[in-house]
UniProtKB/TrEMBL annotation:
Source taxon at top rank: Bacteria
Domain Mandelate racemase/muconate lactonizing enzyme C-terminal: 132-237
CDD domains found in the cross-reference section: MR_like (cd03316)
Top EC class, one word: lyase
Keywords: Lyase
Keyword Lyase: yes
Gene: dgoD
InterPro entries reported in the protein's UniProt record: DgoD-like, Enolase-like_C_sf, Enolase-like_N, Enolase_C-like, Mandelate_racemase_C, Mandelate_racemase_N_dom
Organism: Nocardia macrotermitis
Gene Ontology molecular-function annotations: galactonate dehydratase activity
EC identifiers of the protein: 4.2.1.6
Protein name: D-galactonate dehydratase
């Protein structure tokens, strides 16, 4: 079996364009991959066009190790976000093709299931006014939907420091969410790499009474010594990794023990096989995996197949119950969250199909999403 061509589609919303890759083969079997590129969709599409000519067309979709090696090494450039995202979309589609060709779910090809359901947490639910009352009501809707875990960034447009007024306001939001959901629901605190170490440490101390499940990216991702400094000054687990793009990027993180939970985004870091390698190394360092996922059902399904086979998996991020729910119409087949868990996905392949008519109703949008702009949490496109 050989890959004959790639088709690309862009599913648009006001804050994220989801690039879908459909890989075609000479056997008539097709596979799907997907990635959300934050404000870099054209760069991704351009890379895919060149990579198709240089590496992808004519490849055997069963030989993902060869594909990964060629796309990472033979261009003689250090693979970064664009290259690893393009690779991931194609690589995930290759697993989908393999599963369809063999009539099995992808997780059976990755070593088989080690669990019969997959814990999920909700994101995208706090698209409301930034008040304690509105955040509490929104959090209540998450629990009513069956989730037992949720993530929130309460810090507005904060960067490096947070003044006393904004600190008070942010803590009030977390307190309101905790009161609304009770003591047994996990609350993950997202920081989006906003703060310097001193501010992150101060906020960690103030947040401890609300028992967060983790602090996510408390400092910018480039300086792992700064992250280790934060980790040394809090008992709250530290999560990071969504902006690391190769398994080699994690070496210093493992050595410094600067984090407790890895949030690799499989759609930005080469796909499923690379994530399996990373998870194995993480397991040898006693770290848990909680993959970042801001994609649609195709991306989520790929993550579920990874989670099914990963011993040190913790929990899976999910947006599409609370943000742009129409994406589920465009990519049908993902199982629903029930009592806080996804059931194992059913194959063959990823278990997702593409509704081209629904997709055509949501074309690409002009997106400039800025997490450091006022009102970003409403997830509307930024101006300019």
């Amino acid at each position: 079996m050989k890959i004959t061509k790639l088709s690309t589609y862009v599913l648009g919303t006001s804050w994220r364009n989801l690039t879908i890759v459909e890989v075609h083969t000479d056997a008539g079997v097709t596979g799907l991959g997907e990635v959300r590129m934050l404000n870099h969709t054209d760069a991704l599409l351009g890379f895919l066009a060149e990579a198709t000519e240089n590496h992808i067309r004519g490849s055997d979709p069963f030989e993902v190790e060869s594909l990964v090696h060629r796309m990472m090494r033979l261009d003689y450039a250090r693979a970064g976000e664009i290259a690893m995202s393009a690779l991931a979309a194609v690589e995930i589609a290759c697993w989908d093709i393999q599963g369809k060709a063999l009539d099995v779910p992808v997780y059976r090809l990755l070593g088989g299931a080690v669990r019969d359901r997959i814990k999920a947490y909700a994101n995208g639910w706090y698209q409301v006014e930034r008040t304690p009352e509105e955040f509490a009501a929104a959090a209540g809707r998450v629990v009513a939907r069956g989730y037992r875990a949720m993530k929130v960034d309460p810090f507005g447009a904060g960067m490096f420091e947070l003044d006393r007024e904004e600190t008070t306001r942010s803590l009030e939001l977390v307190a309101a969410v905790r009161e609304a959901v009770g003591p047994d629901v996990e609350i993950m605190i997202e920081m989006h790499g906003r703060f310097n170490p001193a501010t992150a440490i101060r906020l960690a101390g103030l947040l401890e009474p609300y028992d967060p499940a983790w602090l996510e990216e408390p400092v910018p991702p480039e300086n792992l010594a700064a992250l280790a400094k934060v980790a040394a000054h809090t008992t709250i687990p530290i999560a990071t990794g969504e902006r690391m793009h190769t398994r080699y990027d994690y070496r210093e993180l493992f050595e410094s023990q600067a984090a407790d939970i890895l949030q690799t985004d499989i759609t930005h870091s080469g796909g499923l096989w690379e994530a399996k390698k990373l998870a194995a190394t993480a397991e040898s360092h006693y770290l848990l995996m909680a993959p970042h996922n801001v994609g649609g059902p195709i991306s989520t399904a790929a993550n579920l197949h990874l989670a099914a086979t990963t011993v040190n998996f913790k929990v899976q991020e999910h947006f599409n119950d609370f943000a742009d729910v129409f994406v589920k119409d465009c990519e049908p087949g993902l199982p629903e969250v029930v009592d806080g868990y996804f059931p194992l996905p059913q194959g063959p392949g990823l278990g997702i199909s593409l509704d081209h008519e629904a997709l055509a109703r949501h074309p690409r949008q002009s997106v400039n999403f800025n997490l450091f702009s006022s009102g970003w949490e409403r997830r509307q496109a930024a101006e300019g």
